[in-house]
Amino acid sequence: MLYRSLRRFMFLKAAIGREPYYFPDVSLDTLLQCYTEGRCDYLKMDIEGSEYEVLEQAIENNSLVNVQQLAVEFHHWMTDRGCSATKRVVEMLRRDGYGIAWISRTNHEYLFVR
User: How many angstroms separate the CA atoms of 62 and 35, rounded?
Assistant: First the structure.
């Protein structure tokens, strides 16, 4: 399961047995800085409705500047944001320099490239 918090996201993973294991909050900006050495060829995002908040913040912070390809599964059908939120984030990504390379038949998955 994925829980949201402002500017951060946290994964909740079931550990052995019934007790959950919590990973520490890590921002997308921190992940990219720590693990990409300045360049990220491909970033896949399937975070169950949190993509809107994470992408909006990443664009504001200029965190995606070195991400060449961005694959996103939008969850407009399962959030209260709806299709208008997906359209808004797609437009924000276009203004940030991304073009749309592919959209799935369901209109849920998008591939953006610089």
Answer: 17
pLDDT digits (tens, 9 = 90+) for 11-39: 333 334 455 555 567 788 888 888 787 78
Angle at 26 between CA 52 and CA 30, to 5 degrees: 90
Structure tokens at 112: 């953006």
Interstrand relation of 8-14 and 99-103 (parallel, antiparallel or unpaired)? unpaired
Q: Which DSSP letter does residue 79 get? A: S
This model's pTM is above 0.85: no
Cα 96 to Cα 70, 93, 101: the distances in Å are: 12, 5, 15
Contact 54, 9 (CB under 8 A): yes
